[in-house]
């Protein structure tokens, strides 16, 4: 609990800034996009054959609805959350080496397992707080942007929660990589590269029709058209997300537990 509280204190500022940034983005962008596309069909003919929308799981019929536009914007926010998740997961493990505090941390009366679990718990709590704030602001923005307020709240929540689920997976992945390579200095370029490769793999899977590749891209576990049509997730990809998250945590935990710590002389 001591380490959890310490990490939460360290993360407090970034959680507030990140939550406000995502909230402002959806609050101001969603009503504008809904008005632009649903009222005037702005530019829809010119993007009918655009493979990008197919790659993120949207067809033109769905995209022309308020919920389709909400998923479209949330996909980009999910991309940013994936980078942020991997980066914070990587950074929370490598910072002990950057700050030469690894030996200090390990000499305290806490087990390594406690340290690892506490760090992930703090990161997960931050992701959940951000997700709750984003969900609430999404509802407000959708209510503000639509005229009849008849949108499906369950669908909106499913789409909003997807950013938290993806972020949790990339948090666990980032911590695993940070445990294996604790001396990484530039974490953000690596985080961006990992997420972009994941995105490109998932996009290619949809365009060329190789569904197996979607398992390598958590960003594509959530199909916008399917969520909006059925008001549910695709079960096999949710199972994959849970298994991968637990696997990354378990492997990272074991490596951290047994890893030699380089002491500062």
Give a quick set of tags describing it.
single chain, 265 residues, mainly alpha, 76% helix, globular
Question: Helix and strand layout, with pairings?
Answer:
Layout: H1 2-40, H2 51-55, H3 60-63, H4 66-98, H5 102-107, H6 112-145, H7 153-180, H8 187-208, H9 224-230, H10 235-258
Helix pairs in contact: 1-4, 1-6, 4-6, 4-7, 4-8, 6-7, 6-10, 7-10
Describe the structure in your own words.
Helix 6 packs antiparallel against helix 7. The model has no long low-confidence stretch (mean pLDDT 85). With 265 residues, this protein is mostly helical. The protein has ten helices and no strands. The protein is 76% helix and 0% strand.
Please sum up the structure shown.
It contains 10 helices and no strands. The protein has helices spanning 2-40, 51-55, 60-63, 66-98, 102-107, 112-145, 153-180, 187-208, 224-230, 235-258. The two termini are 29 Å apart.
Instruction: Write down the secondary-structure element order.
Output: HHHHHHHHHH
Binned strand content:
under 5%
Helix content: over 70%
Strand tally = 0
Q: pLDDT under 50 segments (min length 5)?
A: none
Number of contiguous helices? 10
Compute the CA-based radius of gyration. 20 Å
Main beta sheet strand tally, sense and closure: none
Chain-averaged pLDDT: 85
Distance between the termini: 29 Å
Structural class: mainly alpha
Shape: globular
């Amino acid at each position: 609990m001591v380490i959890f509280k310490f990490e939460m204190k360290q993360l407090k500022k970034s959680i507030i800034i990140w939550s406000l940034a995502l909230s402002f983005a959806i609050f101001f962008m969603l009503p504008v996009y809904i008005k632009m596309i649903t009222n005037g069909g702005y530019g829809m003919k010119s993007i009918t054959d655009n493979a990008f929308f197919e790659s993120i799981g949207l067809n033109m019929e769905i995209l022309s609805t308020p919920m389709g536009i909400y998923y479209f914007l949330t996909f980009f926010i999910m991309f940013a959350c994936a980078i942020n998740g991997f980066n914070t997961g990587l950074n929370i493990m490598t910072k002990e080496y950057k700050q030469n505090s690894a030996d200090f941390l390990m000499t305290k009366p806490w087990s390594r397992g406690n340290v690892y679990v506490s760090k992930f718990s703090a990161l997960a709590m931050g992701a959940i707080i951000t997700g709750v704030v984003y969900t609430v602001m999404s509802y407000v923005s959708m209510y503000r942007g639509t005229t009849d307020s008849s949108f499906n709240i369950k669908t909106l929540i499913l789409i909003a929660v997807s950013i938290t689920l993806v972020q949790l997976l990339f948090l666990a992945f980032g911590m695993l990589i940070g445990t294996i390579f604790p001396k990484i200095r530039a974490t953000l370029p690596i985080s961006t590269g990992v997420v972009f490769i994941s995105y490109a793999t998932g996009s290619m899977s949809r365009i060329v029709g190789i569904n197996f590749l979607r398992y390598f891209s958590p960003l594509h576990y959530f199909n916008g058209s399917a969520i909006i049509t059925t008001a549910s997730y695709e079960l096999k990809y949710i199972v994959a997300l849970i298994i991968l998250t637990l696997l990354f945590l378990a492997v990272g935990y074991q490596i951290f537990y047994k890893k030699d710590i380089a002491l500062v002389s």
